[in-house]
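Aggregate trends can hide what the representation actually does to any particular protein. In the encoding step, the backbone of a single protein was reduced to a row of integers, each denoting a local shape. The record that follows shows the chain in one-letter code together with its fold in token form.

***
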Amino acid sequence: MKEFNGKTAFITGGGSGIGLGMARVFVDAGMRVVIADIRQDHLDEAMTFFDQPAHVHPMILDVSDRDAMARAAREAENVFGPVHVLCNNAGINIISPLDQAGYEDWDWLLSVNLGGVINGLVTFIPHFREHGQGGHIVNTSSIAGIVAGPGNGIYSATKFAIRGLSESLRYDMAVYGVGVSVLCPGTVATNLHKSEEHRPSVYEGKINETIQEIRSLTGRLFKEVLPTGMDPVEVGKKVLRGIKNNDFYIMPHPEFREEFQESFNEIIAALPDEPLDPVREVHEEKRRSTRREAREKAEKMGRRK
């Protein structure tokens, strides 16, 4: 996607953090932007950042609510017309060792982080197909969607899934002239430390002192660390550049190179050093060939836009 002036973007989690950073950059590029967020106070504050508020439409949205997502899509089109850039960005996080995590923790993060992306895709993909004007989809994963660490298992599970579905989506959407990127940020100055404030009562579960301490730990840790992170506007600039270049991976942070290398070296080293089975190799080469052709098609479509 090369031209942005007059185009429309829809951003979930757009009231603060990375979502707001993208919105500010997109508006500066001449776009009209819908910022959807679960918190009205974040939307109210977000609107103070725009010199041309008529180019920004705020709306309350719980991304885990499929009916609400459908209504949001209709409202966005009624206000600004067809959506050309979809940013599935809303997310939450908790730090909890998996041996101490309950169903309510799993269900909450899955419903927002992964479910929110799925709901955005299932709702908006038909709109991309119908308007036929091409566009771009950005799904926010994380560094934790590439390398996992202790206490981050549920979050990583959602972010690994987003990364995987995005790669497949990249091939599937090429025929419509729609590019796909997966955004994998590290530490960014966001409001992620407020995640627990958004936990619905249905996901509270049974609370005791140990669980309360684990939940409060997330807020304390992130409140200390996140202010040292990258400016969300800087992330937004890198996202805009990634969309222009039709990049699949948008990696804002250079400091993770060593961890990536260690992780992928471990994967390669684990492969058995033995002769290939000729029957299996025939089938695997067909699979690889299909993937190569799909990637070439996606890249070719990206160059046309």
Remarks:
- The CA atoms of residues 15 and 45 lie 8 Å apart.
- The mean pLDDT is 92.
- The beta strands are 8-12, 32-37, 56-60, 85-88, 135-140, 178-183, 249-250.
- Residues 8-304 form a domain with the Rossmann fold fold (CATH 3.40.50.720).
